[in-house]
Amino acid sequence: MKRGLALVFGEASHARLHAGLTVACAAAALGRPVRLFFHGEAVAALATERRWMGDNAYAAAGLPSVAELIGSALELGAAAMACQTGLQLCGLAADALPDGIEAGGMIAFLADARDDELVIG
């Protein structure tokens, strides 16, 4: 069994989210278990109507959007969790999260990711 990769996103930065999600998708494509935790303001990336200014430049270069990368990561089997506090901070309801993303806390995430390599982005 390959060692898991646990990524914690701590801010709503297009470049950081895009890079981290690209790493997540690559690791999952290689068969590595992947867990994603959207903490604090990074939960805003999960709003289905969210559009990023940076996505236009990336699309012009043939790159996927943040939303497409989230979808790809989930399709590749990544587990994803949205911080409950971040949901409140961003004004999002847990039942408005995209399919496959659950609400939870850092303790639950770290308990699940106990032996995973932890990356904070």
Query: How much helix is in the residues?
Result: 25-40%
Content of β-strand = 15-25%
Per the CATH scheme, the topology name is: Hypothetical Protein Ychn, Chain: A
Oligomer: single chain
How many helical stretches? 5
> Overall mean pLDDT score?
94
Name of the top-level CATH class: Alpha Beta
* Number of E strands: 5
Cα end-to-end separation: 25 Å
Strand order of the largest sheet: 4-3-2-1-5
How many domains? The number is 1
- Looking at the structure, what is the overall shape? globular
The poorly predicted ranges are none
Rg of Cα set: 13 Å
Structure description:
The protein has 121 residues and is an alpha/beta fold. It has a single domain (5-120), classed as DsrEFH-like (Hypothetical Protein Ychn, Chain: A, 3-Layer(aba) Sandwich). The chain has five helices and five strands. It has helices at residues 14-29, 53-60, 66-75, 84-90, 106-112; strands spanning 5-9, 34-38, 79-83, 101-104, 117-120. The protein has a five-stranded parallel β-sheet. Helix 4 (84-90) links the parallel strand 3 and strand 4 (101-104).
Structure characteristics:
5-stranded parallel beta sheet, single chain, globular, about 120 residues, Hypothetical Protein Ychn, Chain: A, about 40% helix, alpha/beta
Question: Helices, strands, pairings?
Answer:
Elements: E1 5-9, H1 14-29, E2 34-38, H2 53-60, H3 66-75, E3 79-83, H4 84-90, E4 101-104, H5 106-112, E5 117-120
